Structures are given as structure tokens and as C-alpha cells.
Amino acid sequence: MSAPLHPTITTPTDTRVMGVIHTVYRRELRLAGEVVRGVAPGDTARAAVVADHLQLVHDHLHHHHTAEDDLLWPLLLERVPEELAPLVHLMEQQHATVESLVAEVATLLPRWRSGAAADDRDRLAELHDRLYLHLVEHMDAEEERLLPIVARAVTQDEWEAMGARARSGTPRSQSLLVLGMIVHDGDPEVVATMLATAPGPVRWLLPRLARRAYRRHALSVYGTATP
User: Fold this and answer.
1) What is the phi/psi pair of residue 170, to 5°?
2) Domain count, the chain
3) What is the per-residue pLDDT for 4?
4) 146-168 pLDDT, tens per residue?
5) What is the pLDDT confidence band of residue 40, given thresholds at 50, 70 and 90?
6) Which part of the chain is the Hemerythrin-like domain (predicted)?
7) DSSP string spanning 90-151?
8) Do residue 177 and residue 147 come from a single domain?
9) How far is CA 12 from CA 2, 34, 99, in A?
10) pLDDT at residue 129 above 90?
11) Is the domain of 112 the same as that of 219?
12) Contact between 132 and 33 (Cβ < 8 Å)
């Protein structure tokens, strides 16, 4: 690894949590189109279950990207503009594509939730298929090209502050479920680092409760506890 780009960084900042969070979006958005297509026209009860799930995923994605935009990008643009320059245009293009798809979903989702019309369903499924492809492309670029720069230019405290900002957008009533979405197939070692400051009994119990919460949720959305 190249030399650190911040005077207080003596070891690379641990950015692995980003990959674990991305695992949630890869899984849930990969499955989104199919689960939407499975809702029969007019079945508003089932549409509400699926729509509430999709809204949760989109809300979490929004908080994740907002924290990046507010806290990460300004630091990088200040500290490593030359290294970042080749990525800025790519990331701007990818963000614009993702944001346009998310905006259309945000308009369509409430209407489909309340009416479960077939044409709204089909359009919503198509949007999620496209969103998945574009978001995966974006996350791959972040992980492969951006995070190595972050590890050298952003301190661990600054990195963790971004994570705290993203988590603050999740309502307390949803926090256990969101953690369950993360631990479901996230790297256990990275999950352990996320909970490292909690008391020992909490570190043991919380992932188990979270995993159970997601399994119940997944069963209602996907018909299986292990999607």
C-alpha cells in the first residue's frame, strides 16, 4: 500500500464495513424485481408488504449516500484532489443514473402500494432490475478504486463518524432489522468490529436477535428465511 496521505494515519483505515453494507444492497436489489413481479394485480395486502420492504431498503441507501456526500467526499476533495480526479467524473455519472432511477421509484412505489396495478408493478420491477445493475457497477468501483484512497486519506475517527451519520437516519424501531440485514451474510469478523465497543453480553446477543428479526422479515417478503 502507498504511504498515508494524512499525518495522523499510522495504519490504513479499516474500510471493510463498506463492503458489508454493500452486501445488503446487492442482495436486496438483486431480488427486488422478482419479488415485485410475484405480486398479483389488485393484491394490495401483498403489495404493501413488498413496498414497505423496498422503502426500507431505499431509505437505508439514501442515508448511506447522504453520509458519503456530506462527510466523505469533501475530505477527499480537500486532501487528494489529484488522486480523486479520475474517479470524480465516473462517480458523478453513476450517481446521476442511480438517482434518476431512485426518483422514479419514489414516485411510483406509493401508487403501486395502494393500487397494485399490473402496469405499475411491471414498471417498478423493471426499474429495480436496472437499479441493481447500475448500483452494483457503482459499488464495485467504490470498493476497487475509491476505498484504497480512503484508507490512506481519511482517519479511522472520520470514517466512523460517517458510519454514525448513516446509522442516525434509521429509526430505532427498524435498527434491529437493519442490523439483521447486515449480519445475514456479512463478514462475521467485520460485524464484530462494528459491535466492538458494546458490552460483552450485547456483542453476543445483538447479532442473534438481529439475525432472527431479519429471518422473520425475509419470510414475510420472500417466503424464505434465507433469501
Assistant:
1) -90, 120
2) 2
3) 59
4) 999 999 899 999 999 999 999 99
5) very high
6) 22-149
7) HHHHHHHHHHHHHHHHHHHHHHHHHH--HHHHHHHHHHHHHHHHHHHHHHHHIIIIIHHHHH
8) no
9) 10, 40, 31
10) yes
11) no
12) yes
